[in-house]
Amino acid sequence: MKRIIHQVLFLLVLSAITAGCADTNYPGGEISPYISIYDVRNLFKGTAVTLNPEILDGSQKLAATVISDHSGGNLPAGLLIVQDKRRLDFQRGIALPLGEAAASFVPGDSVIVDINGGILDRVDGILQIKNITTDKITKVAKVPVYVTQANVAKIIANPNDYESTLVAIVKGGFTYTPTEGQVMAGDQEINDGFGSLTVRTDARSELAGLPQYRMANYYGIIFNEVIGDSLVPYERMRIPSDLVELKSEYKTPKAIITGWSNDPRGTDANNEYIQFMATEDIDFSKTPFAVVTTNNANASTPTGFPQKGWATGGMRTYKFNLTSGFAAKGTFFYVGGSNKLIMSTNSTSIAHANWITAYAYNTNDGFDFGTRTTNLLANSGNAYGIAIFQGTNVDATSIPEDVMFVGTGGSLVGNGYGYRITNNDFYDIINPLTLEEQPFYRSGSNTNAMTYNTPSDAGYFNFMGGEFNLKLGRWTKARVKYAPLLTKESTLEEIEDPELTTKLIE
């Protein structure tokens, strides 16, 4: 009897488990016929792959947008280039060799491509799906064409990701100043401040005679060539309008921001300082300057958007005047607290540095505006900024020689008020893509900012290392922050290390 009871209980438990499984199993669904270009590209491991539903996990079609335009005669002949963002919003593209039929498609054609039976292979450096004919492609609509804005460093670091996608490289220039008559024909190397990339233009194309501009936006499709074991990217513009001249004024600033100490180890009062480099000889008694800092803690007054910009004053902005002293071209000079110590109390004196203005900001109000403060530049939280101006008259309309921000929070821009920026490696007064005015930090594309160092009170020094080309009058290597920890025994030579700070290129 006991044995029978055990058997009955076993059957009841088994039945319950089976019923539970039946209740929780997904009832099933149909596999989408569409696969992303991202997933297709990932199938290629160096040798040709024949595509079929089995290898495509049950799918067999692409739903993509045409980006190629053969009317300009500058794209690889016979290649239809399409892109999509179906997987995780990643933009990816692929080439389809169609021969003369490729020219019958135009940018914005939304197409369905049956890739069953296609062969995925890299030909002449370009990943392609071969064995596709026009009867396997259906035009279904006209749609907007998505353009990815990318700097050259990202493209070089990820050539496979950007291949066969439409990319805008903004603020591209040459390592020389183009003269009248120089044109785009051939391989031309452009630099956008983040790296250099070849723009390839066929001599027989409509684009061959386009002028070389001092600075321009380059819209085009990224392709690769195989050199050794590496993919080396280059860009091909499609039509003449893919080259857009930028006419914003990019002048050489007389002084640039190269570093600062905002959170020394110990008290901040009168121990914070900013390092600059002169790009020409400056006699401050004849050519005075002003340095203004801004803090934007929520409680800092006046609250709200800065109605007078850098001249708002109170606890929001603090001004130093630079009216005496001399800085030779290519040398550092300093502005900040009166203690002249490298890392707050009981640290190495750097009084022998070229201090143009050393001022007790914790006991004195700023020159013309700014309330005395124990914390000139914030240690955490909302944004702080540094700007240097030629002249000592600073108001809401003043445009700095150079400017830099850390952090993004606070009441920074709105209702026509904000902190004006200048054209440098981080900011643009005119949006380089839309060509709309964006005069303030956090307006338009002016969102670049350095991040805070953590933990606080550790003793970081903020190096800003880049390359400014004096002949071209622009940044050919955008500044990058490097923040090593200093000690109480650190020396002036450490923060003026030529390997770490900005370089002037003649």
From TrEMBL:
<dbReference type="Pfam" id="PF18942">
    <property type="entry name" value="DUF5689"/>
</dbReference>
<feature type="signal peptide">
    <location>
        <begin position="1"/>
        <end position="21"/>
    </location>
</feature>
<protein>
    <recommendedName>
        <fullName>DUF5689 domain-containing protein</fullName>
    </recommendedName>
</protein>
<dbReference type="InterPro" id="IPR043744">
    <property type="entry name" value="DUF5689"/>
</dbReference>
<keyword id="KW-0732">Signal</keyword>
<feature type="domain" description="DUF5689">
    <location>
        <begin position="34"/>
        <end position="205"/>
    </location>
</feature>
